[in-house]
Amino acid sequence: MEIERKFTIKTLPENLEQYPVRLIEQGYLNRDPVVRVRRVEGDEKDFYLTYKGKGLLAREEYNLPLTEEAYLHLIQKADGRVITKRRYLLPCGPYTIELDVFLGSLAPLVIAEVEFPSLEAAQEFQAPDWFLDDVTMDPAYHNSVLSFS
């Protein structure tokens, strides 16, 4: 189960380069249900096929590892645009803010996501001052929708 909230931001945090960053490329094979392939480049390269169920704040999520060869085959079958973004990992109390800075045709969009262990923790979360709007309940901010916008 994935429980996460999404936010737009006012400004990028200072010294962003001091935080761990990963380059992510992902494409969508299906949107209902969501089926995605993703390449993550950081210290290593990882490849995944992900299934996401319905929902906005909470939904099923399953990640299956792929080989690079399988990823390269499947990404060619993606519908819509392939999304590329830099994901910065910023500490925030017991949580991690995943700050996605979109590249290419979705730039200059920036979305902050925070995952939680429970619905209660998600509802109690106090967003930092540099967050702007809570867009968790707006499906327009799902990457599967952004890939077609």
Automatic annotation (TrEMBL):
CYTH domain residues: 1-149
Spans through the membrane: none
Catalytic residue list: 28
Full protein name: CYTH domain-containing protein
Organism for this UniProt entry: Candidatus Eisenbergiella merdavium
Organism classification: Bacteria, Bacillati, Bacillota, Clostridia, Lachnospirales
